[in-house]
Design a protein that fits this description.
alpha/beta, 37% helix
Length: 238
């Protein structure tokens, strides 16, 4: 199946499953809240265009052709002038990038002073490592070189390594990158997990979402050990 066919299938699943749309829209609202008041806002890795639907004012970009995007480009060669972008938003994109550090350097270039990068990505905890390593279709390897975590530049656009955001954030905290950490908010993500993502094509019983949301609230004090996702906000210094 080609990348365009995979994304077309995701679009069909999205339209068929209201509970999946609800989870993502909650994520979208958190992302947009992190860049509120900034302009323009650019989405990196727009995929099938779900966030663009939710927020039509975004400039949607992606490397894959034939999608509902405004600009086709690589994440580390953004076609925007220096200091011209207010915010960059990403959903499940950083861990797919062949050169994540180059992307963050490019983000720092295009962002205005105090511009922000907000992203929701996989997060590594003892439990999520097992989940991503053994029960997920993408890779999860901690011992990679962040300059080229997939080896060369010939990786497929949809190949991923769930450990990349965790490793990248460690570099940010060390002060090794041109952006500073504003916040990192890990969360367990049970409402998403019980949707089974885009693997299931038909709606699941609403009771599953109710149980998952109850479980998320109950287990929240343990998110340090159980989180599977994180909302990260980075800022370009003034």
């Amino acid at each position: 199946m080609t990348e365009a066919e995979v994304l077309a299938r995701h679009r069909a699943v999205w339209e068929a499953r209201p509970e999946l749309r609800q989870v993502y829209r909650e994520w979208f609202a958190r992302l947009l809240g992190a860049v509120e008041g900034l302009d323009p806002v650019v989405e990196v890795g727009a995929g099938p265009g779900f966030l663009k639907e939710f927020a039509p004012h975004l400039v949607a970009t992606d490397v894959v052709a034939g999608l509902r995007v405004d600009v086709r480009c690589d994440a580390d060669v953004l076609p925007f002038r220096s200091a011209s972008v207010g915010g960059l938003v990403l959903v499940d994109t950083l861990h797919h990038l062949p050169r994540p550090l180059d992307f963050l350097a490019e983000a720092a270039r295009v962002l205005q002073p105090r511009g922000r990068v907000a992203m929701i990505e996989p997060w590594i905890t003892p439990s999520s490592w097992v989940l991503y390593r053994y029960f997920h279709h993408e890779d999860c390897r901690l011992g990679v070189d962040l300059t080229r975590p997939f080896g060369g530049d010939d990786k497929a656009a949809l190949d991923g390594n769930a450990a990349i955001p965790y490793l990248t954030l460690a570099r940010v905290r060390e002060g090794a990158l041109p952006l500073r950490l504003l916040s990192a908010e890990p969360f367990i993500g049970l409402p998403y997990l019980v949707t089974f993502g885009f693997k299931v094509e038909r709606p699941l019983p609403p009771a599953l979402q109710r149980l998952a949301r109850l479980g998320e609230a109950t287990l929240d004090p343990l998110r340090r050990w159980l989180a599977t996702r994180t909302l990260v906000v980075l800022e370009k210094p003034a």
